[in-house]
Specification:
heterodimer; A: 648 residues; mainly alpha; two-stranded antiparallel ribbon; B: 105 residues; Helix Hairpins; 3 helices
């Protein structure tokens, strides 16, 4: 027994809540189901805080290093070989404890918020049942102790995301979006599964602790050196396995080019976007890379890690450019999420391993943490705004500041945080990412630096256009501040957004699990440059959007076709439709369907027709007359007797 | 063993009897007549059993026992067949097989 033997309760409580709400969804009335779900989450939140306290401050640190704790539920659940078996267990280590806090905090806030947001919705109980299912899956994912277990929960979060995106299943667009999200992530998960099998084959284990131990990666590294022949495009098979695992993470984390499902996923209810598509599920890919970080770092000098960095940086830039032009506020936030996840990937990709060199790893995890708080806050505020004006589009908003002062205030806090203005949370994590990137590669740093400016610009474009700019005439139906339950959640997250930056993250989380010391050098030109970049982004947004001006129009026309491309998301949806419909469906699926319908079915039909025709020809012998049958019988007997007599 | 009668003669008799039965079975359309023809065939067999037992291996009695079985069986079978014929008559008011040929293609 160890100190954390109670921990299986954390995923179990939401599971029980899901089963209870799922079976009684038709019977219990509106507020009750919400209270059941929220009470369950409150317990989980308490347990998570207790676990974090106990781990970080009591039992975790042994001889200057955070030791992992493992709670086994079933050892050897599936056996492949003597060494290769799948266990069901819970791994408690710094990053899983940190994710526990993220998931339970955001999920609790979303539960409380939804009491107001989903008020008088016909699917209220169903909504809470799905939320509980998602929370269970996500907690299971972060606590998994091996690759196969994480894969199981990986699919479960995919299913709950599918169910929640398609929550308004009467709307065709929501149904299409849920299918798209599921198919795209499933497609990526196919590579993930292949990657898991390859990692299991070479590493002879699925267990994270075993895989991440020095003996394993030294063995694998020695194998790679001795078996140069097993390589593809200059990289060894094991590196390819890690890249395949990363493709699974790209699908879930909406990295380019598998990002297309995330904007459409905004069809779901807004609290869902805050929980799943901003704070928790979409960072699963980052978490996965962080989980296997020692492997990524040590195998072939981090070749797979370079892929992570490049994909992350490109996605960050790509999504930020698109976010500049979008009109739907939730889509701006969706692309912003994609861009920030790109940041986290970049941070992991540029990270070293030991001591202060692991700054990138720490910064990536730190950004994951702070981003979860402020992005969930942004989404929840966006939900309050949509609730008030019944539209997703910025053109229907404007001048909301005087109607919704609290929302305006918390949105401002979150926007400042994501832009990287001290002392809000985003500044600290983003600055550490940029520092790590600068030490690794100047070009990647430049991308991150530009993206920081763009982020500040599009966030304040959003802020000014929603709350200031023109005064839209709302008619008789004046917008009003959100109900109390929603405000509580928003204000609490705003509080976290302000204070989260002061958590001494490097003391808690690092690549080699040894605490190190890092602090912001205020006089450092890098720090000053990034603050100036953010401030100039905000300044430009202020000039262009605080009052209604002609600048946006002028800039858009000056950009010419570039603006059009960005606004249409670089036509990636169209490209995918072209590839799937025109190439895969028309050139591959249709010939196969033709072959099936004509050749395979044709052969079977031929058999059937032959039998039928023959039967038609010889059916006359069944006359129904007894004498005829007796005649056949007697002739048969005579024939057999003759045969025996003459041919024996 | 019957004096002055060989097995060949007895078997010729039973063969003739058997084929009379077959001829009757194939040509009569009246079910009662067909049943009678059937009895002829069965009886020919019964005689065969007794005769072959008596002439070829007189020490044992299996053949005679079999013929007793055949007689008992024939009686049971006749009772059953008559019941069927009676029922058929009630349904169709005929016992002519040419009139009853619904069970065909």
């Amino acid at each position: 027994m160890n100190a954390f033997s109670y921990i299986y309760l954390i995923p179990l409580i939401p599971l029980l809540a899901f089963l209870f709400l799922g079976f009684t969804a038709k019977k219990i009335k509106e507020p009750v189901s919400g209270y059941v779900g929220t009470a369950g989450l409150l317990t989980v939140f308490g347990l998570s805080l207790y676990t974090a306290y106990k781990y970080f401050f009591e039992v975790g640190l042994v001889n200057g290093k955070y030791e992992p704790y493992k709670v086994m539920i079933k050892e050897g659940w599936v056996h492949f070989t003597d060494k290769l078996a799948i266990d069901i267990g819970i791994l408690v280590d710094p990053i899983s404890v940190m994710m526990l806090i993220v998931v339970s905090t955001v999920s609790l806030m979303v539960h409380i918020y939804s009491l107001g947001y989903m008020h008088s919705d016909t699917g209220f109980s169903r909504f809470y049942a799905y939320l509980s299912l998602f929370t269970f899956s996500m907690l299971g994912l972060v606590l998994s102790s091996n690759l196969f277990m994480i894969y199981i929960f990986w699919e479960l979060v995919g299913v709950s995301s599918f169910l929640l995106i398609g929550f308004y299943f009467e709307k065709p667009s929501a149904v299409a979006a849920s299918k798209k999200a599921f198919i795209v992530t499933r497609f990526a998960d196919m590579f993930f599964l292949i990657g898991i099998l390859m990692v299991g084959y070479f590493g002879q284990s699925f267990d994270f602790e075993t895989l991440n131990s020095p003996s394993t990666y030294e063995t694998i590294q020695a194998w790679i050196v001795n078996h140069q022949i097993f390589s593809f495009m200059g990289l060894s098979l094991f590196t390819w396995a890690l890249i395949l695992v990363y493709i699974g993470g790209m699908g879930k984390s909406a990295m380019f080019p598998l990002h297309i499902w995330l904007p459409d996923a905004m069809e779901g209810p807004t609290p869902v976007s805050a929980l799943i598509h901003a704070a928790t599920m979409v960072v699963a890919g980052v978490y996965l890379v962080a989980r296997l970080f020692p492997l990524y770092y040590h195998i072939e000098d981090g070749a797979a890690l370079r892929v992570v960095a490049v994909v992350g940086a490109f996605s960050a830039l790509f999504a930020a450019i698109i976010a500049l032009t979008q009109e739907d506020i939730k889509r701006v936030l969706a692309f912003s999420t994609m861009s920030q996840i790109g940041y986290m990937m970049l941070a992991l990709g540029v990270s070293g391993f030991e001591g202060h060199e692991g700054l990138g790893y720490m910064a990536g995890m730190f950004h994951l943490f702070t981003h979860a708080m402020f992005k969930a806050l942004l989404f929840l505020t966006a939900g309050a705004i949509i609730h008030a004006v019944h539209s997703n589009f910025m053109k229907d908003m404007g001048g909301l500041h005087k109607y919704m002062p609290v929302s305006s205030f918390v949105f401002l806090i979150a926007a400042l945080a994501i832009s990287g203005i001290p002392p809000f949370a985003g500044f600290f994590s983003k600055d550490e990412i940029l520092t790590a990137a600068f030490e690794y590669d100047k070009f990647l740093w430049l991308i991150g630096f530009l993206v920081a400016g763009m982020t500040a610009f599009y966030m304040f474009r959003l802020y000014f256009r929603i709350f200031f700019n023109k005064q839209t005439d709302y008619g008789d139906h004046k917008p009003h501040e959100a109900p109390k339950t929603m405000l509580i959640a928003m204000v609490f997250l705003a509080f976290l957004t302000i204070v989260a930056g002061f958590i001494p993250f490097s003391e808690l989380i690092s690549a080699d699990r040894m605490p190190f010391h890092s602090h912001i050098h205020w006089g450092d030109p890098l720090v000053i440059a990034s603050i100036l970049m953010a401030a100039s982004g905000i300044g430009i947004a202020y000039l262009m959007y605080y009052k209604e001006t002609a600048y946006p129009q002028k800039v858009a026309s000056a950009m010419g076709s570039g603006y059009k491309w960005a606004k249409n998301k670089f036509y990636f949806d169209e490209l995918y439709i072209f590839i799937t419909h025109k190439i895969i469906f028309d050139k591959i699926s249709k010939p196969i369907a033709w072959f099936d319908r004509n050749v395979i079915d044709g052969f079977m039909n031929l058999l059937g027709v032959t039998v039928e025709k023959t039967a038609e020809k010889i059916k006359f012998i069944q006359t129904g007359r007894m004498q005829d049958y007796a005649m056949y019988f007697v002739s048969g007997v005579i024939a057999i007797v003759m045969f025996i007599v003459y041919f024996r | 063993m019957i004096e002055g009668v060989s097995l060949f003669e007895i078997m010729s008799l039973t063969t003739i009897l058997f084929f009379i039965g077959i001829y009757g079975f194939l040509t009569r359309t009246n079910l009662i007549a067909m049943l009678m023809s059937l009895e002829l065939m069965v009886n020919a067999e019964a005689i065969n059993f007794v005769a072959i037992n008596k002439y070829l291996s007189p020490a044992v009695l299996q053949g005679q026992v079999f013929s007793l079985f055949i007689i008992a069986l024939a009686a049971a079978e006749t009772a059953l067949a008559l019941a069927i014929i009676l029922h058929l008559y009630r349904l169709t008011t005929t016992i002519d097989v040419k009139e009853v040929e619904e069970l065909k293609y």
